[in-house]
Design brief:
Elements lengths: L1 E4 L5 H11 L7 H9 L10 E6 L2 E15 L2 E13 L8 H15 L4 E5 L16 E8 L12 E3 L6 H11 L5 E4 L14 E8 L2 E9 L5 E6 L2 H14 L5 E4 L15 E7 L3 E5 L4 H9 L20
Parallel strand pairs: 4-5
Antiparallel strand pairs: 1-2, 2-3, 3-4, 3-8, 5-14, 6-12, 6-13, 7-9, 9-10, 10-11
Helix pairs in contact: 1-2
GO molecular function: acyltransferase activity, transferring groups other than amino-acyl groups
Pfam families: Acetyltransf_9
Keywords: Acyltransferase, Transferase
Amino acid sequence: MIIRTELPADYAQIAELHGCAFTQSRSQEESVLTAVLRQEKTYDPQLALVAEVNGEIIGHVMVVPYTFQVYGEFVNGGILAPLGVKPEWQRKGVGSRLIARVHENAVKADLSFILLLGHDTYYPRFGYVTKMFGEANIDISLPLQTGLSNEEPAARKPLPQDVQKLEELWQETHRDVPLCLKPEANFLSWISTNKAVDSLVFTAKKEVIGYARVHGGTKEIKSFLAKDAQAGKQMLRKLVQSYALQDSVSLPLHPLRKNWFSPPEKTSGKTASWAAAMICPLDGRSAVHSYISNVGKEADNTGIIHWPVPFELV
């Protein structure tokens, strides 16, 4: 068995492999995700590996580097997705060898950790720690206690010139969140890959004050960034009105931002960590190890991972 980096000539075989490996998928989710992840500016072919036997590709793994904020420190990390092995080669050590090699290459690429969502009975043997992140939400009861003001913001599609301002909004919204993923300084990082998801920039008096992504069908708010509490309230009122939201609205924000809305709104905040949400530390960086040690001690110690827009395809 040979473990090597993927090549463009391998892409068709890799797509077919994932179509066979993920029998629970009813579509080409993993194959399409892999293709879109290759368009990320941080994509590194040394972190996209295949297992080959006699010219046949029997396994594939991909880690895409991203920047994370851990206790206020920017850290290079990666997301492992997907890992696939042809059914007839499963349980024969192919996945283990792919993970071992991609970990070696990740260390060489100066990644401090890798995170993933996966089987909590499989990945811990490779150093992954379970229950490292999950969901973080602020739930707000409707109807809102305050109505629309004369300063109702306008909403439009993001533009390339918005990127710097959107990064500032992200920093303000997540400034003290224990763990979060920082969008890349790239226009496409702010536009969903899912045509059902609206990507919105909010402006007031020609100033960018917020950003959100909302699924037009389910009305799920997938991302919410605001300049400050006033902007957050303005955006919330606009979203409730525009999407005809009823009963309650759930914002994908860490409970640390509850003071943006309460008072006067009736709010509740929660964090939850999932067994499938895992982190594998690759070096001795203290911020990462501190986070792993502290995450389960108090609810507010749990970070929030907003997956990059390629993952909205699946």
